[in-house]
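Open question from group meeting: does this chain pack into something compact, or does most of it stay loose? Before anyone orders reagents, we agreed to write out a predicted structure and look at it together. Recording both the input and the output here so the notebook holds the full record.
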Amino acid sequence: MKRINTMALMLGLGVAGVHAQDIHVRMTFSGNGSPSAVDLKQPASNNVEENVAGNGTFGAFTFRDIRAAAMFPQSSMACAGAFFPALAGGAIMRFQDGSLLKLSLKEGGDCIDFVQKKAVCTLMFEVRGGTGRFQNASGILTYIENAAPVLFDASGMNLALGTEVGEITGTISGVGHDDDHKAER
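Structure tokens returned:
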């Protein structure tokens, strides 16, 4: 009986160890970005959002973020153009199996080259759990996109729609297997 209890304990710890493993993430995407109608109520900011889809470590996904970006550029050693820092925001990733991953913006922003009419957006997100296999997930993901304008507003000064391609990388732990959450669906 003692052996059975010991074996059960070891098996349980082994399964918990599998769930606690760090998973290195790499996902590529494409999609669009535009101003957002959602107002995050940050002073001196504009609200923007990205809607992209892609594939990678956890399979096919969609990604939507909404964030407040500073209205006026700030200096940045990493940006040769105009840098507009992200002030607040979050994102949701939805995977093909229906699992959701919740993300909270930590830092980042847009580096815009107005002469070349292109931008690089780099955002860091903290993983805040989710649903399905991501219920207990945690970690940090970095979203890097290259953006180009498609459509400007009537004034010709404000971007109305842009293309976006890039990748999401980082490390996540606490991810379950698809089978672990079938009863939830």
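Observations to bring back to the group:
The chain is about 10% helix and 55% strand.
The radius of gyration is 20 Å.
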